[in-house]
Structures are given as C-alpha cells and as structure tokens.
C-alpha cells in the first residue's frame, strides 16, 4: 500500500507540481523542506519508477508464496538481499560524504533536515538559514551551537551499527521467510 501511495505522489509531482507545492505550503514545515523548484518531472518519474519496482518485488513474493513457486520465491529472496546491499551502500555513501564535509548551504532540503534533526549549525555568518534556529528569524545568538560535522560524526558513531544491523536483520528475515517457504514447497512437491 505504501508503494502505491508513493506512486500516486510521484504521478502528482509529474502532472501538477504546483498543486503539490500548494498542499505542502499549507502543511507547515514541509514547505521549507520541499520547495517548488525541487518538485520536478525527473523527481516524479524517479519516485514513480521506484514505487513500481517495489510493487513488482512485493507482488512477486506474494504470488510465489500463494502458488508455492520456488523460482519466484528464490528471485524474491535474491532481490530483497540485493536491496539490502543497495540500501547499505547508499547509507554509507551519504553518511561518509556528510561526515567529511558537514552540512553545506547547497544541500537544500537535506541540509535543513539534518540541521533540525541534529540541532546543529555550520553557518557562522550574519545571514543564518532558518534551520539553524528552528525559527524564521534566525540569528547567531539563538542558533544551535553544535557544529554539524561533529554532530553527524557523533550520531554515526553512536547509531551507525544499529542502522546497519537493523537493515541487515530485516532483510535477512524477509529473505529467510521466502527461502523457507520455497524449501517447504519443494519438499511437498517431492512427496
């Protein structure tokens, strides 16, 4: 269901980004994280394609489970494990990049999100981004005092293993369930 809702949002970005920007503007803090210039056709197509891919994988696992298809269950397990590797690689890429450079002004919505989540600020100039304070009228006196590079490094050292472990555990459980179902259906076929 989540993939279908994501697909609908992707179609919404493709067909009418101005109305989505209007809805996000009315939603409060989301308007600053998703400005209208971010809502492009390329983003909508990417979101729609990813959601179709996830629906395809889910349907393959469901159909393989219902019909006891060993091939579909094996493909489902393999794709889930490949997705785990991809998620770990993407997480590692973004976190190592952010840990090296900190949060830059060019990071846009991701930079605002990181500053708010980590309660940090790298900007020491007079014009501070709103996310350095969490309010619209941000100044150096009321901004977060922690450096974002240090905050990101602390967060990764504290939670990195937990994130990787939970990614691996959830995907191994999903793959194991489909492989057990595959083994069970194969043993029934031989009896």
TrEMBL record:
It comes from the Eukaryota. The keyword ATP-binding does not apply. It is a multi-pass membrane protein. The chain crosses the membrane at residues 45-64, 71-94, 162-180. GO terms for cellular component: plasma membrane. The keyword Membrane applies. Its main location: membrane. Keywords: Membrane, Transmembrane, Transmembrane helix. It is found in: Membrane. This is Tetraspanin. It comes from Pieris macdunnoughi.
């Amino acid at each position: 269901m989540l993939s279908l809702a994501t697909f609908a949002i992707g179609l919404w970005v493709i067909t009418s980004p101005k109305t989505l920007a209007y809805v996000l503007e009315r939603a409060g803090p989301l308007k600053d994280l998703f400005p209208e210039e971010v809502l492009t056709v390329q983003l909508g197509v990417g979101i729609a394609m990813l959601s179709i891919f996830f629906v395809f994988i889910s349907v393959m696992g469901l159909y393989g489970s219902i019909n006891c298809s060993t091939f579909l269950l094996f493909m489902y397990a393999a794709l889930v494990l490949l997705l785990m590797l991809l998620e770990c690689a993407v997480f590692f890429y973004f976190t190592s990049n952010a840990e090296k450079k900190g949060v830059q002004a060019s990071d846009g919505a991701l930079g605002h999100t990181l500053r708010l989540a980590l309660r940090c600020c790298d900007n020491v100039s007079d014009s501070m981004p709103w996310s350095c304070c969490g309010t619209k009228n941000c100044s150096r006196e009321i901004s977060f005092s922690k450096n974002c590079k240090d905050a990101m490094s602390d967060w990764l050292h504290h939670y990195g293993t937990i994130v990787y472990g939970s990614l691996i555990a959830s995907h191994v459980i999903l793959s194991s369930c489909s492989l057990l179902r595959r083994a069970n259906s194969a043993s029934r076929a031989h009896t």
